[in-house]
TrEMBL record:
Keywords: Membrane, Transmembrane, Transmembrane helix. The chain crosses the membrane at residues 50-72, 92-112, 133-153, 173-191. The keyword Disulfide bond does not apply. InterPro entries: Sterol_Desaturase_Related. It comes from Salpingoeca rosetta (strain ATCC 50818 / BSB-021). The lineage of its organism: Eukaryota, Choanoflagellata, Craspedida, Salpingoecidae, Salpingoeca. This is Fatty acid hydroxylase domain-containing protein.
Amino acid sequence: MRMSQEKMREEAGAGGDVGKGVVDRVARLLGVKVVEPLVRRQPSTTTCRAVALLVIGAIFVLFEQQCTFAVANAWSWLRTAWWFQHDSFEPVLATVSFFPWLALFYILDMHTPSAKAFRIQQHRNDMSNWTNTGKGSFSGWPILLGYLLPLLVFDQLYPRRRLPLQAPTAPRLVGEVVGLLIVYDALFFFCHRTMHMHKPLYRRFHALHHAKPGPVRHDAHHLDGRHYFQKFFTYLDNAFGPISDKERRCNNTRQK
């Protein structure tokens, strides 16, 4: 009798732990419970972003018709632009966008002394011993061409893109963009999480990415989805929890 009572207590406790875990995940997803981030953002940064969001939202609501009219004009122009009509416009734009984005941080880090005051990791302000390992070259050309050339050839042989004659309204356009970001972040999260969970995938495809320790800010979004770069759209890390320190140490051991 006593054994059965103890067993019932254990089962009840296990059920309570499962229920508590589900509640915690939902709370993280909704932003009610926030996992402590590795890096604290300055209050002024959060305030400026909130004010900017409110101003943009107010302009959008007050001038919705004007925004829709502007979208319609841009839509009519883009329908006749050959570079926009081409099926490979998105992958080419997404790939080329990395170059100015990466160059911006190189300029800020190496050639803009006044930018040091805005670094998240202030203890790494001394960059006198840094060297540019790229030496003016880009070693990823084979990967870049291997990604783009098949798309360019396929799109040239089988053109598919035809924009509708009727332009979307401004609210619909914003909703579609937000939806695409959510889908992209969801796929990115599950692919990344899968490579960390399965040893063969990690060793074959992802270990090189963790070959050298990166900045603390690089891993911060794994602790709180709201601190990811796409700030308003990535909640999956927050819902499913971070990659644990133990798992990260195991990954670092596997690559050796």
